[in-house]
Specification:
Structural class: alpha+beta
Number of domains: 5
Strand order of the largest sheet: 3-1-4-5-6-8
Radius of gyration: 50 Å
Largest sheet: 6 strands, mixed
Number of helices: 22
CATH architecture of the largest domain: Beta Barrel
Distance between the termini: 148 Å
CATH class of the largest domain: Mainly Beta
Helix content: 40-55%
CATH topology of the largest domain: Thrombin, subunit H
Length: 743
């Protein structure tokens, strides 16, 4: 059996050594062939192209084997001569069969034939064997004939392009028989294209732009857009000065045609703000307007009332006047969420567990060292065996003593007592504020070329929601996390001050969609009169609110408001001007903005404008107008005179309590920093409780004080800031309040 296996193995080895060649995986040539044999194999198979490719790629082998290379090269030249002779005759016939010029339906056949000739020439030009076949001369003749025909086709391209139906047909370059340089060709046809598109309308223009705009330079594209716009404008307004509506219509057509104008030509626009100075002075215009020039007009913004005449912005063809009739902020609290967090309030001294662990380990190591030394002393009396044992104990002792030294050093540097932080719970608020900007704007479009003007109005409503945390303490270890992703009162205030963007396209769209016709004017005085009438109406509407009262009950209540503070506490305030509320500073000290509830049930917001921490007074600018109070203005109040306090004690809104005037007291103030300054107070037994703070103390229909505080150690002993202190405060900030007429 062993002998039989050996014989079989010998036969296999001999068979392998015999160089038997098997077909490769792809069957292109047998495995084991060298490059020269591969070339011969492909030539025998009639694959001249593959044979030459192998020859080119294996030149290193051929140089190393010159005899094989010479034999293969001769065969390759013979095969190339046969191959190119036959192919050259066929390609020459293909080229001679091409007729030119031909009409568009025959372009595809012409393109296929030209492509066939070009492909052959590209292949032949790469051949390293062709020069040795003697066929270079007829090949060069073929090249010259092809180049001449291609040149004629490129020259004729301009003629065919102008005859081609560009408005409906597919891309000219995709079907023309020869390849053209699209960008340079289109540049040479720019004048023709402008004339064609200038007189064309409908989807055809957009079709041309879709196919060919990518070949245009930005300058040429803009030039063609301007040409199209002017032609469109002439069609809309022939033989007359075009109106603004006509200009906008032509610009829209140009845009739909696929052109993006960098600037609408031949027209300039100026924008002028003509809002009432009275309203702005009275802070009735809460925010400005920013015109977004989203249309490509050449425009400028001019400030000042001087724009009411023709001398201002003399280059402007169209003047747009902007008059804000009203702009206000509607600030509402949509949710109020009480949250709990912790704050570092102190430290507690406790035993340091690390010190205790070190001390325990220190004692253990001391005992181990003592035991090992006792053991070594005992072993010293045990002869040779004890000496050997001491070697082991000594090694262990060294390690224990090293650890003992380290533990002792750490123990010396570790405090026996440490401070453990104490955290206390506290509450903060997470308030959702819905802030809405509202405005009514009158606008006037003056067309100086046609001497017409148009007037209309539009409303603005822009809303944003803010999530504002109040009362997060600086010592809160989680303060950064609690404030992350939230907004602040400053963010709200910045939003409210920020001008609202108004798109020019929106204004002009309203204008073009209106059925109202522009009015002719002879002088700008007519326009000024219209604007002034609108402004005066807005001012009159504002003035009406100063004296309006909607209640038939005690009218004094109409002047009183509920102040809801950020911490959800409640205080009282009252109107001293139609849009200014007076209250105690300690009522609003925790927030710059507070929510107000009016006597008529409406909600509003107030912004802390100014304050006096010593007198404990503050003024709020409010968005909703109210009826201002009248202050008592005589030198004295008769003792025993009935006084009435209006406020919201313990959340009981609009409570009125009565008492009498006891005395005028000048004592140290109770303000936040006013403990040293003396303030004049009215002492009364009218009930004043938490919630009354900041409310009015009336003597009949005149305010004589601001309810502020009461003695907790005495009954019915309460104090209101004297009217003289209040009027001094109001005078300091130029508040135009009402006072009793002097008799």
């Amino acid at each position: 059996m062993t002998k039989r296996i050996a014989i079989v193995f010998f036969v296999l080895v001999v068979f392998s050594a015999g160089g038997c060649k098997t077909l490769g995986k792809k069957g292109e040539y047998p495995q084991g062939y060298n490059p020269a044999e591969r070339v011969e194999y492909q030539l025998e198979a009639g694959n001249y192209g593959k044979a030459e490719s192998i020859w080119v790629k294996t030149q290193s082998f051929m140089k190393a084997n010159p005899e094989d290379a010479a034999q293969v090269h001769s065969a390759l030249v013979r095969a190339a001569t046969v191959h190119y002779n036959a192919t050259l005759a066929d390609i020459s016939k293909t080229l001679s069969d091409i007729q030119w010029p031909v009409e568009q339906p025959r372009w595809p056949l012409t393109a296929r034939r030209m492509h066939k000739v070009a492909a052959f020439m590209d292949s032949a030009s790469d051949s390293t064997v062709l020069p040795e076949t003697g066929l270079e001369s007829p090949f060069m003749a073929l090249q010259n004939d092809y180049s001449a025909l291609e040149g004629r086709m490129k020259t004729d391209a301009s003629t065919f392009f102008r005859k081609y139906n560009l408005l409906t047909e597919k891309d000219f370059f995709s079907i023309y028989p020869v390849k053209l340089d699209e960008k340079s060709f289109i540049a040479s046809q720019s004048q023709f294209l402008m004339e064609l598109l200038g007189k064309s309308e409908g989807s055809g223009v957009a079709h041309v732009n879709k196919l060919y705009s990518r070949y245009l330079t930005p300058e040429l594209r803009d030039k063609m857009g301007r040409r199209y716009y002017r032609n469109a404008l002439r069609r809309i307004s022939p033989n007359k000065t075009p109106s603004l509506k006509a200009i906008l219509e032509a610009a829209e057509k140009t845009d739909k045609a696929g052109y993006e104008l960098s600037e609408i030509p031949d027209i300039n626009i100026a924008f002028i703000r003509v809002t009432s100075k009275t309203l702005m002075k009275e802070h009735q215009i809460a925010f400005g307007l920013d015109i977004d020039l989203d249309l490509p007009f050449k425009a400028e913004l001019i400030k000042g009332e001087a724009a009411f005449n023709d001398k201002v912005a003399p280059d402007a063809d169209i003047v747009v006047l902007i008059n804000e009739e009203m702009s206000r902020i509607d600030r509402r609290t949509s949710s109020y969420d009480k949250r709990i967090s912790t704050v570092l309030s102190g430290y507690e001294r406790i035993d340091n567990p690390e010190y205790d662990d070190l001390e325990m380990r220190y004692q253990e190591l001391r005992e181990d060292i003592r035991d090992m030394r006792d053991e070594m002393q005992f072993n010293s009396f045990m002869g040779l065996g004890g000496a050997i044992a001491n070697l082991v104990v000594s090694s262990k002792l060294e390690g224990v003593e090293n650890e003992y030294g380290k533990v002792r050093a750490r123990l010396r540097n570790t405090p026996k007592v440490i401070k453990d932080p104490i955290y206390s719970k506290y509450s903060y608020s997470l308030v959702t504020i819905d802030d809405t900007k509202l405005a009514t704007v009158n606008y006037y479009i003056v067309d100086r070329r046609k001497r017409t003007f148009y007037t209309d109005r539009f409303d603005i409503k822009q809303s944003q929601t803010f999530l504002v945390p109040y009362g997060v303490m600086a010592q809160d270890p989680d303060r950064g996390q609690l404030l992350s992703g939230k907004t602040t009162e400053k963010d709200v205030e910045d939003y409210e001050r920020e001008a609202v963007k108004v798109k020019l396209s929106s204004i002009l769209e309203s204008y073009t969609n209106s059925h109202q016709r522009p009015r002719k004017y002879r002088s700008t005085a007519e326009i000024r009169k219209t604007i002034l009438n609108d402004r005066n109406k807005a001012v009159a509407d504002y003035k009406k609110t100063q004296f309006k009262s909607d209640t038939s009950n005690d009218v004094r209540f109409d002047s009183v408001v509920v102040i809801v503070c950020p911490g959800n506490s409640m205080g009282t305030g009252f109107y001293v001007t139609p849009d200014t509320v007076l209250t105690n500073f300690h009522v609003v000290e925790d927030g710059k903005f507070v929510e107000l509830l009016l006597h008529n049930g409406m909600e509003s917001f107030g912004k802390v404008e100014v304050y006096d921490v010593e007198r404990d007074l503050a003024l709020l600018k409010v968005q909703s107008r109210g009826k201002p109070v009248t202050f008592y203005d005589r030198q004295s109040i008769p003792a025993g005179t009935t006084l009435e306090a209006i406020g919201h004690p313990s959340g009981l809104k609009y409570t009125i309590t009565r008492g009498v005037f006891s005395a005028l007291r000048t004592v140290k103030g109770v303000g936040v920093v006013g403990k040293k300054r003396k303030v004049r107070y009215i002492q009364t037994d009218a009930s004043v409780n938490p919630g009354n703070s900041g409310g009015p103390l009336y003597m009949k229909d005149r305010v004589v004080g601001v309810n502020t505080w009461g003695r907790t150690d005495m009954q019915s002993t309460n104090f209101a800031i004297h009217y003289s202190e209040v009027m001094d405060f109001l005078d300091q900030y130029n508040v135009d309040y009402r006072r009793e007429a002097t008799k």
